[in-house]
Amino acid sequence: MLEAKIPSGPLDDKWTDYKGHCKLVNPSNKRKLEVIIVGTGLAGASAAAALGELGYKVKAFCFQDSPRRAHSIAAQGGINAAKNYQNDGDSVFRLFYDTIKGGDYRAREANVHRLSEVSANIIDQCVAQGVPFAREYGGLLSNRSFGGTQVQRTFYAAGQTGQQLLIGAYQALERQVALGNVTMYSRHEMLEVVTIEGKARGIIARDLVNGTLERHFGHAVLLCSGGYGNVFYLSTNAMGSNVTAAWKAHKKGATFANPCFTQIHPTCIPVSGDHQSKLTLMSESLRNDGRIWVPKKQGDNRKASEIAEDERDYYLERRYPAFGNLVPRDVASRAAKERCDEGYGVGSSKQAVYLDFSAAIIRYGKIEAGKEGLANVSEAEIIRMGKEVVKEKYGNLFDMYEKITGENPYEIPMRIYPAVHYTMGGLWVDYELQTNVPGLYALGEANFSDHGANRLGASALMQGLADGYFVIPYTVGNYLADEIYSKAIETSHPAFAEAEKEVSDRINHLMNVKGSQTVESFHKRLGKIMWEKCGMARNAKGLEEAIVEIQALKKEFWNDVKIPGSIEEMNPELDKANRVADFIELGELMCKDALNRNESCGGHFREEYQTPDGEALRDDNGYMYVAAWEYAGDSNWNLHKEPLVYDVIKPTQRNYK
Amino acid sequence: MEHYHMNLNLKVWRQKNCKTKGEFKLYRVENISSEMSFLEMFDVLNEQLIRDGDDPITFDHDCREGICGACSMYINGKPHGPWQANTTCQLHMRAFKDGDTVVVEPWRADAFPVIKDLMVDRSAFDRIIQAGGYISVNTGNAVDGNALPIPKDDADASFAAAMCIGCGACVAACKNSSAMLFLSAKVSHLALLPQGNPERKSRVMNMVAQMDKEGFGACTNTGACEATCPKEISLTNIARLNKEYLFAGLTAE
């Protein structure tokens, strides 16, 4: 059932060969071919812009009031590219290797190599669009380090790289809107995929302002709808980020791959109370200069400033001397959890560790003093100068931290704790980013393909833009070339009517429950189950319990949810109910997938499977495959396995020591 | 940091849609933690309203970390509330004390019609960008990113303008509902970079024309926009916009 369609030939040549041989569509035919794009983050906006430029008729949908608000905008740290501008040993192969290793050998070699190949083009494209990346005094682009690598290949724009890249893609998209190649549907949510004779042929979307259901035809449908981290309720995702588009596709036959692969980001602002609605990330780039530590003494209640240097345990530097504070995210998160579980946590909740910039401030202060040729500088002056440097690098992050916590991180170390951030799993796609439903594609975080069991920092932006700007324009053309004979199908076709009726029935059903519990309360309960039993550490017993609890929650939801207002108006509670209903079903599948995978790899840590020193213990003989789940009715899935074949890289136990 | 709890009286603008008349309604919330964000306090209120069988208050919000630009509440007479350089979602309840009355309204501007309650339609901003807020470069044509050195100061100044989150607080703060700060941020972002040079004149002319068409008011340099901007976009951008516009006009063929 699952044919990955990986081109033959040597790894280095696959993408070039593919591009040289894929089918093309001539310009006059492109004008007759319609493409639907759901979601306008980096993947969706870049795809819409690129396909619009080629001359396809594009319809793009987003649930926000403007495509510029998609959650890609919140990405902070940077975007990787194998430019080797630093002359520090980077190459396409090195980025490919780091990504495969970082993903704990659970990603497809051919896809990752292609990602690495096009990474350099992304930077060039963004510069041409006017993305104001950070630069050195000589006018050239600046780089910094990110976790899981030993080279400096991350391009950035202060702590707002995602914003700048998204604005670049958004502007390219709006240019196509102005030229008439893209029609933009804001405040619209996709609620069903329409399939005709096995092919994706359109969607049912709901206008969120007035509640009307709309039918839209497309020769191909591209889902660029992001990840599903909000299944945990608390995550660094935006409030509106949801799995609905992907889940509808799944229920229409698209397999969902590796749903249990969730990234828990090590450096987030800790939970402060039950009122919390979301968690805020503090960029991984901070680990370039911040040192992570806890007191050496358990239950130490002293202030950070009262704990002397030799009473501090810089546990990442201690455990992983080669990578230190820049180990990959999964490793750093588990290490923080381990310290807190053992009673070394800090802050009032004891569920936090310190991220300390004092050493960096002094180091930078001394460099500045040296630059200015100052001798006998007082320590206060060095600190002042050092703070200026740190401010330039991370100012917006420090401000954000202070606004949320009321504490000044220039003076006292930040308190941080891991939080759900990204989902490596997603719709199964082949080399062409096509799901197993012909004509239905998934790009960016919505697909599963490039990050294996753990994503490296600064690689999400890279993948979103690679898929949208440089991959899909070729691969969708290869499909559409055979569609030039297919005329646009009228949306009066019975398949559209039927799909619309399904959506409308479901919405009516939800509104008619008229129960007593709010949507939010169900979402919170789901999140609690997921975090406790399918979070940073999982075990068979917990996962089995979680499945039972989620099934019960689902029943309760459909019998007792309370949604105010009506259908034919702006009704955010109804929108949320639609999404939470899908999250509940997804949660069950995630637990099922985690239970099936009797090994630990990357972000998936099964407590039963660990090395004596607490590292993830893979089982390459048993689980070197992509677990792609086919929906088979209520709480029922069939597992399909796509074996992962490593032709070039030899999988080993990941070692960051 | 000392944490505390508070009871508040809220006076919130309610409006069913753009065709009906709106009004202020009074609500009370109790036992609000000073550690909550302002929107989390609204979550508490909305949960309370739903449980009581009332209609919850509709407002735009998404990332809740101050970058998406969705949130847009006019709090006690100021867009995004009392804190400097801040968005509504990043405003925290320690800004208030027990017993306070807080007045919350939507952005008010002809070009931003109310959709419901505190939610407004800001699509005019997208149309201003469509008029020229981009560099016309198709995908795949780019030269090497380092082929064109850009002085760090120029890149930094461009970035400072490009930080605009398109929230519309500048319009809401302006007595004329002018969109000049928003527009000037985009014109500056692109005009400060060599890549933006070829379309410099047409860009500014077309974007200004679109702004006027959308019904935004004129700029009278009061500086209320700069004072309220969550990203501290500087008024000098408006000066640069005027310069660009004048130059484009004078050299037009």
Describe this structure in words.
The complex is a heterodimer of chains A (657) and B (253). Helices cover 38% and strands 15% of the residues of chain A. Chain A is of the alpha/beta class and 657 residues long. Among the domains of chain A are: 267-419, Succinate dehydrogenase/fumarate reductase flavoprotein, catalytic domain (Flavocytochrome C3, Chain A, domain 1), CATH 3.90.700; 502-606, Fumarate reductase/succinate dehydrogenase flavoprotein-like, C-terminal domain (Methane Monooxygenase Hydroxylase, Chain G, domain 1, Up-down Bundle). In chain A, helix 14 (519-533) packs antiparallel against helix 15 (540-560). Chain A is globular and about 80 Å long. By secondary structure, chain B is α+β, with helices and mostly antiparallel strands. Chain B folds into two domains: 5-105, Ubiquitin-like (UB roll) (Roll); 122-250, Alpha-helical ferredoxin (Fumarate Reductase Iron-sulfur Protein, Chain B, domain 2), CATH 1.10.1060.10. Chain B is built from eight helices and seven strands; from the N terminus they run ββαβββββααααααα. A five-stranded mixed beta sheet of chain B has the order 2-1-5-3-4. A two-stranded antiparallel ribbon of chain B has the order 6-7. The mean pLDDT of chain B is 97. Classes of the chains: A alpha/beta (657), B alpha+beta (253).
Q: Look at the structure and give the CATH class of the domain at 267-419 in chain A.
A: Alpha Beta
What is the typical, i.e. mean, pLDDT of chain B? 97
The low-confidence parts of chain A are none
Provide the CATH superfamily of the largest domain in chain B.
Alpha-helical ferredoxin
CATH architecture of the domain at 267-419 in chain A: Alpha-Beta Complex
**Could you spell the SSE succession of chain B in H and E letters?**
EEHEEEEEHHHHHHH
Largest sheet of chain A: 5 strands, parallel
The total count of helices of chain B amounts to: 8
* Number of strand elements of chain A: 21
Q: Structural class of chain A, please?
A: alpha/beta
Q: Oligomeric form of this entry?
A: heterodimer
β-strand percent of chain B reads 5-15%
Biggest interface, CB < 8 A = A-B, 83 and 80 residues
Radius of gyration of chain B: 20 Å
Query: Order of strands across the biggest sheet of chain B?
Result: 2-1-5-3-4
Shape-level CATH architecture of the largest domain in chain B: Orthogonal Bundle
**How far is it from the N-terminal to the C-terminal residue of chain B, by CA?**
62 Å
Q: What is the share of helical residues of chain A?
A: 25-40%
